[in-house]
Amino acid sequence: MARRRNDHYPFQSRADLLSPDTARRTPQTRDTLFALQVLLAAFAGLPNCTAVAAGVEYQVPVSSKLNTTGKPIGMDVPVKDGDRDLGDVAIRINADDSILVSRTGISRVIEASLGASARKSLATIDGDATFLPLADFASAEIGLRFDRASQELILNVAPEQRATSDLSLSGNRQAPPSSVLASPAKLSGYVNLFASVDHQWGMHSAGESFAEETSGRLEFDSAVRAGNFVFENAGVLAGDIDINVCPTAAVCAYTHTPGIKRYMSRLVYDMPEDRIRIEAGDVEPLGTSFQNTPSLLGVSLEKSGRKLSPGDTFAPTGGGTFIVNRPSDVEIRINGITQRRVQLRPGTYNIRDLPLVTGANDVDIVIIDDVGREQHVSFSSFFDTNLLAAGASEWGITAGVPSYLRDESREYLSDSYMASAFYRYGLRDTLAGEVDIQADPHVAMAGAGVLTDFASGLVGVRGAASVGEAGSGFAAGVDWTVLNFRGLTQENAESFHLSAEYRSRCFHSAGDIDAALTGIIYPQWNYWLNLGATYSAPIGYQTTASVSGRYQVANDEDFESALFASDNRYGLDLTLSRPLNAEWSGSLTLGVSNESYLSGISPRAPSGTEFRAAVRLFGRPDAATNVSVGYDTLNEQSDVSAYRSAGNGIGRWDTSVNVQQNAFDERASVNGVVGYYGNRAQVRLIHNSGFDGVSISDFRVQPGQQRTSLQVGTSLAFADGHFAIGAPITGDAFALVYPHESIADKTVVVGTPDDVRAIADGWGPAIVTNLPAYAPSNIPVDVADIPVGYSLGAATFDTFAPMKGGYALEVGSSYSVSAYGTLQSRDGAPISLLTGTAYQVDHPDKTATVFTNAAGRFGVEGLAPGRWIIEMETDGTPTRFVLNIPENVDGLFKTGILHPVDAS
């Protein structure tokens, strides 16, 4: 499977057929072409000469002139800026060897390299001539010269005349959509379907009986995009067997019922240029500080760069400006680690989007010019994702009826409501402020906070006050974080975090939902004071030590429910972690605590101080396998998990195993999954096992609930009238890729040979399932066994997809014919070394570039059956040729010799 364009042209070599693209790609060929043109022009019409002995004399002296023809020669030459090829420009070499340069052509290729003042000087060059002499550029103080040896135009301007360039190191800044990108479909959508057969094995253990039964299940999630509106929906047709496993340390108090159940439904409208999203239906609001964020049936408006412009960084990432006076090698180091080496030409550079780690960062820019002189530009920068760059903002407004899931069904508190809002703003790069408000029928709360970068670290202060049925209260919190600082170890790798939060006994947040309503009940700790601190530092031998402490003072006066545990909690730990070898790393935790792992409707309160020991191992035996093993005496829990994958793209396999054991209730669970991911579907085999009587000290294992599921997942998708079946869509956008009717019987492969993402074949279009939203992406394609000379066009589709957007991408087209032949004048002379344009008579907007070699031979691709006019840029008026391509031509077409036709 390979895409070919000119490889099948029946010329002796690729140099026999030149196009502007080929000329740009191969400077050697371009130089040969220029030499041939000049030599042919110089010796045209000269009499034959016979060599004589030493001291030879020629009938016509050999000239050092570029142009000896006595008439102007036109051609395209490259423009170089140092080692950069800016593009090709048409020039004219007069009979006196003076050089004229195309005004529009040179402006187009060098304008981006010039600063504002230089661009203004270029625009004010006198006259309206199409071609300008080189002296005019010198008078405008723009260095432009013609190199006779390399046949190139050389741009040479001072650093202060150049445009300021941005160097983005993190790759966060992404190009916005442009006209060269593929356009998303006006109407598109998909539905993911996950059908499974579930079998519960008959079992009797620990007083519980499980009847053997088999049932089916169908999960679905869908999205339809029409214009800028997206409608999302998700739900399940549940069978008699509840496939959900009750979470560890929780109690599941609901009764499973089969039937159709809806997870959520919502309508979404995005304004990505303003980073604003509007939602109606089941919405999930943003929140900050002390706010609750329950799901609501209502309306949400939010400004979120993280969602609608994920490629941009809205936190201040630091940066600086430096000047390069001579061609230089530049090395950018952050915290002593080289992030990038780059060769730069003279100019002014803004360095942006530094790949900073959270905390303090030392930035050093090392500039070594072409004569070996070294210069350093150094500065410090602090980074935290919670900070906002000066002038940046984010906000959210939400109102509606609170909701929750019970037994996979969306339920609503119809007698309640909640409204919430917040606003965050970057006052400057080192200071962000926020305000928030929230209310329901029982309580109203308002708050404010600031986050600032001090020399001693990042400090956040927040506060809130509430008023409601339970009385009035207030809350306050402070966080202090110092990362990557030099302290006890004198290495730039220490970190420290301190947090404190106070809540008065009558302080409440809006939007609290009774946990018993969900049917999945977790024990809860309520406090009026919560303190925590952590310090970590490297201590040598590749080992990092961390000390952490925490203390919670219980608030049990306002919470008398059996769901809440009482009494104060505290703990102090020391953790040592280090790599053990190339494949394994481990950690050991030692400490004291009165915390205990809680379970049950009536959780037990902490009692007495206990010694704690925990160990954990992480392994990566090979690139496809991950293993984690751990045991903690505090929770009396051990766990083992492993994951392994084989292959990439479609046709890959993976398997995972997860084992958990809880000694406090002498139970264990084992979950195993094997998955295969194909072109049209994915298949997963899942088994869940429960065991009783599992204890380190008393091993009396008894099998508990056992369940096996076979699941098949697929998707049905459409985009602008095209339909396809494929693997489940997992990204925020998708694409259907299909062949043009001229290659309808061929197989289109999406991706690379090592990572095939989808295949379009006799079963229909391919579905690319994982395109990102509001970020650039590309979709490479290839076609097997296409006809010789078939012009496939672009081998990659570029996308910048909207949320849940779909694409209908056609590979190939009606304009797939590649033609070759010879152009001659009426007297039989070759039309040599010229460029021209071919256009279709019935569709003049369809054009292709034509280029001839010294023998007048030409090649052109991107044509279709029909009548074409070739216009060659000869002296005076263009010379026209007629090219008729028969209807049955598919791929390569030999025209033979073409002669000029009348202008009419």
From TrEMBL:
GO terms for cellular component: cell outer membrane. GO terms for molecular function: fimbrial usher porin activity. Residues 1-24 are annotated as: Disordered. One of its GO terms (biological process) is pilus assembly. InterPro entries: Fimb_usher. This is Fimbrial biogenesis outer membrane usher protein. It comes from Hyphomicrobium denitrificans (strain ATCC 51888 / DSM 1869 / NCIMB 11706 / TK 0415).
